[in-house]
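User: Sequence for Alpha-amylase below. Tokens please.
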Amino acid sequence: MMKFAKCLIVSLLLASVNAVLVAQTLEIQRIHPTNWWIGMKNPNVQLLIYGKNIHKAAVSVKYPGVRVLKTHNVENPNYLFVDLAISKAAKPGTMSLVFSQGSTQTTQKYVLSAKRHKPVPVNSSDFVYLLMPDRFANGDESNDRFDDMLDTKADKNVPFLRHGGDFQGIINHLDYLQELGVTTLWNTPVIENNTKLKKELHGNLQAAYHGYHFSDHYKIDRRFGGNAGYKQLSTALHQRGMKLIQDAVYNHVSEDHWMYLDPPTKDWFNTWSSYTGTTHKEQAITDPNGANIDRKYLTDGWFTPFLPDVNQRSPFFANYLIQHAIWSTEEFGLDGWRIDTYKYNDMPFMNRCNQALMDEYPNLLIFGETWVTNPASLSYYVRNNVKFPFACNQPGTCDFPSFQAINDGLKESFGWDGGINRVYQALAQDFLYHDPSKMVTFLENHDTDRFFSVIGEDFNKYKLGVAWLLTTRGIPHFYYGTEVLMKNFKNPTDAEVRRDFSGGWKTDTENKFVASGRTARENEAFEFVKKLANYRKTTPALHSGKFTQFIPQNGFYVYFRHNAQKTIMVVMNTNAEAATLETARFAERMQGFTTAKNALTEETISSLASFKVPAMTAWVLELK
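Assistant: Structure tokens for Alpha-amylase:
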């Protein structure tokens, strides 16, 4: 009898323990996407459920117009994937997701809203301003640092640490951007980077202040202002008629990302027997004689030892990334996407992601960062006119060939292949691209040496570069501070070209946001950009007209932007001395015009047969 009683007690204890374990399995920690919308072209959404041992839970929903299609188990018992179908009959509201296992149930609320966002097209009429939120302006000092994050440091005197810039700082200076002529804001990534300091190649411990080390896709970094602050920035921009571009990273995440610490499957990330970095050699992709292993090294190799490479061939991870892109567009009212490290991604995945976004938001601009200076190779990664074995569907891309050409060309003397001929030759290969007007042009960005330093701090060359950028074909973007002659080389680190914008912090002794805080030369640069950017904004022929260029001769580069209403003639004299331009060879574009007005100086050119142009000067002539 005693033995039976002991057995009964043990059985009851085990049952109690099992009951506790069952309860633990229904602890839901994350549901991604965190919310969704009715009215999407794709009526289905796949939920990633994360918790403790939830993989055996049954899932049900009682909400008109919504049903569970299927649940998916994976290797890790902490994950469950749930496919939902949302019919056109569904109404906005809060539904209940019921998770059941045995006699235990838990319910999670899930919000469905009506799809409302219609992106404002970003196109060649726009002037895009790229900034790094941490380095632009600190509008809210209370969010500079948080003790419960992995990186608790904030010190603007240390180049490698966070400096405290945020969304409120940007909002505080939207008047400045609009005065300059900016129409569209592009921030480096704003998604949470809750990561430890990383030891970079230069040996310093560096914070992820730049934003490219994601740790949770569905959180905007609270040191910038969090999800609520990002919505405030988006609203403030749209109230002014401005637009917002978000920076995407599909290729990798931080080693501190919660999914890397506890991945759903063994193949969630691209892993190797020992650390294998990418080769960065895109030639392997289009090389008809190339080796498959070299293609694999490019796409599956890791960008750095602390940035795990995402396996975009995983159907669940692919869905996760695509849905996050759609979620972000709707949640934050985005008008465009810039895609980081484009060439390292799996191209079938990228096509699927791009198409899903364009299906839901046909007006959305998508352009990638493909650091390739050969136009033929670059054309592979964008809609093109080449019969490659694989056809990429990306609408636009950063124009690295023209970036390299203008930076090199202004450092060189004019020659057969040198000087300004480099720019002409780069643009002469536009036949490769399906739509060159969607090429995003630039003089510098957050990964390059500063343009003003590259050209030897020569102000005349600076104005030549700016004039070219704001009059050539494509969508121009500026890197913050270019308008006030911010300078430096990436020596010893990238932090040197990511310095704070003076005036964005209360402790700054100079304020470049106002004319009184700028030097005479800085004000001249600002006013030059402002004059041309605002003229461009109101002159459709200049920003959207046909582009016709002529072979450079005798140090002159001449091209035209024209439509049925207006013709703009751009003349660049890259000689070290003033020179006379004879215009007879431009007759096909100048016939019928007798005078011109210089949009930069307001001066009138009374005779177009020939005219003398000062050394190292660009004229933007509105023909009359």
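The mean pLDDT is 95.
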